[in-house]
Amino acid sequence: MAIVKMKKLRLMAVRNQKEELLKQLMIFGCVELREPENDGLAPELSQYLSRESSSVSERRAEKALLQQAIGVLNTYAPAKSPLLSAKPDVALSEFLNRESLEKYRSVAESLIADEDRIKRIGTEEGRVRGLIESLAPWLSFDCPLETEGTRDSIMFLGACPAKASLDDIKARLSEAADEAEIFEVSKDKLQHYLVLLSHRSQHLKALEALRDYSFSIMSFSGLTGTPRECTDGYKAELRALAKEKNQLIEDIKSKAENRAALELWADRADTDIAFSEAEDKLMGTQSTVVLDGWFPAEKEAELEKLLGKFDCAYEVTDPTEDEYPDVPVELKSNKLTNSMNMITNMYSLPAYNGVDANPMMAPFFIIIYGLMMADIGYGLVMVLAAIVAMKKIKPKGGTLAFCQLLLYAGISTMLMGALTGGFFGDIPYRLVHLIDPDSTWAGLPYLFSPVNDSNTVLYGSLVVGLIHLNTGMVISFVEKCKAGNLLDGLFEEGSLWVILIGGIMWGSTMLFASAPAVLGKVGMVIIIVGSVLLLFGAGRHSKGVFGKIGAAFGCIYNTLTGWFGDVLSYSRIMALMLAGGVVAQVFNTIALMPAESSGLNVLTVLAFLVIFIIGHALNFGLNLLGCFVHDLRLQCLEFFGKFYVDGGKPFRPLKVNSRYYDVKE
Q: For 536-542, which contacts have Cβ atoms below 8 Å and span 24 or more sequence positions?
């Protein structure tokens, strides 16, 4: 696969066909609009061009209204939809018929008004409950709260900390004001609730005396009647508020039948926003409009056929090299490479003149993921989950790429599990020997075991790393040759390949006693030749003796540390394979402990199932994420670092947008 070749479109159309033209381009869905440039336009036309106006702010406000209304329904009347259900279909003609949806504006506004009133009721309920709580200590006080005293006396309601002695308070008060008395209404763990009665001439002395005991006056201004009467009134108010809130909730639930129409209108609003944003990118005169854009070259014939229906003049050109940074990027994918799109989108799209890494990355990502997970049972779960999801929800775009990646990684996990003999760890072997302790069955057959053959797995991981890294170097070498930089490729990648070949020849004599000694000597000569080429290539662009020496030392350091670190990074394949297998075996051991100690019965079988399912669910979830993250790291850092040029802008054509519905032509 490759990066889709783009072409630039410049078009001028009569004004009265603007809306229909944009509508047809939206249905076509393959043209990304951009703001027109003045270069290439006649000077006498450029001075009359002005930006087109649009209703994008109104459309966004409309979308916000609909989303809020749908959110109200989802809160108070959630839809009961089957698990993993596909989006409902809607015909394009119905989707674009705006008039049929306008009648639901009042429904949306009513839903929002109901929710606003429910929120205000909640605030009011909180206020009333606070008042009831504040009156609770005074319920036994049978004097109206508005009472302040008589002509000669004054009354205060207040509180002081519970740790204060009431006898001490009374004694202190009698010393300070002999015509004052204090009464306790109630007491809790925190405070005494007190009533102070005093002659008006002595109330200041009384308050001053009580200040030593942190006496604070409590105000109930605005309340009339006894605390009991006020509390009863507030409880009645709470009941009325609750009744009103329930009525509002029922009113919202009665409008749930409009959910589908509101969701359809919200999807249409998304499309209207895209339409209005496209209008913002147009320029025009009193009688014409001008647009610029990009479209896939393979769609040129279809686009010309569409534009032939309008009174317009247009020009189609290939982008120049200076325009490459502005050209949007779309990757041409098949069923295998489409699964890699979510990875390149997470990292960064390649530059327009770069390389689509997906075709070469796909087999490595899938194989490495399978090596890391390496369990038939886990792979089977992944495959079944992907198949069910694709069948039920009929995914598109990024969701489809994720399901495809899950499917391919699951198949790879099953295959690698067959090589390592793993099926939910070692559960087949453990179950057989639990049922028949005298069995001689050695478990599922395997080519190598991450537990018993860890060194073999480690060496194999490093070999996979060497192949992966060298594939990236081959791509880099080919790209340099295409760009006319053959010498750069020979001195950079070529010299490393010479060193690698020599290293393999020399290393074979160290690993295999039967290898001829001359092979090691020839390998050492080849290593020296490759090293000379590498050092010469590193310093050939440097000036002066010291510059060349510095470049040579820098090359030695970067090559040794870079290559050693890159290759060593692939040891994580062995680490994750080993960790997943060991943890699975640990959970199997724990799950079988009750049966091994007490024999097979209903309780031990139930205990086994619970521990087995929970344990392997945790191990599966951790490995599912961990293998993806570490595999992603190997691709984005080690593999991409050899050749990948990022920075591509994603291709975002004007098209019909939908979240809740699947629009069919």
A: 536/491, 537/487, 537/488, 537/490, 537/491, 537/492, 537/495, 538/491, 540/491
Output the CA torsion 540→542→545→551 (10° steps). -90
Instruction: Output phi, psi for 315, to 5 deg.
Output: -135, 135
Q: Which helix (H) or strand (E) holds 283?
A: strand 283-284
Query: CA 623 to CA 618: how far, in whole Å?
Result: 9
* pTM higher than 0.85: no
CA angle, corner 105, sides to 101 and 109, nearest 5? 155
E strands in 81-148: 89-91
Q: In terms of DSSP bridges, do strands 6-14 and 288-296 run parallel, antiparallel, or are they unpaired?
A: antiparallel
Residue with tokens 């100690």: 597
Closest by Cα among 379, 372, 454, 385 to 424: 379
The whole-number pLDDT of residue 169 equals 87
Q: Give the CA count within 13 Å in the CB-facing half-sphere of 173.
A: 25
Strand partners, 284: 50, 289
Q: What is the mean pLDDT of each run of 10 residues along the chain (665 residues)?
A: 88 90 90 74 59 80 91 89 75 75 82 94 94 91 87 90 88 87 90 91 88 88 89 94 94 90 87 86 84 92 92 91 90 87 87 89 94 94 94 86 93 94 91 86 87 87 91 87 80 76 76 71 76 67 61 64 80 92 92 88 92 94 94 90 87 88 79
**Three-state secondary structure call for residue 149:** strand
Within the chain, what is the greatest distance between any pair of CA atoms? 124
110 by DSSP, 3-state: which?
helix
The region, left, alpha or beta by phi > 0 then psi within -120 to 50, assigned to residue 225 is: left
**Neighbour count for residue 184 (Cβ, 10 Å):** 12
d(CA 157, CA 155): 7
Q: What is the dihedral of CA 118, 119, 124, 127, to 10 degrees?
A: 140
d(CA 586, CA 424): 11
Angle (CA) 425 431 434, round 5° = 135
CA 233 from chain centre, in angstroms, equals 51
Q: How far apart are CA 639 and CA 642, in angstroms?
A: 6
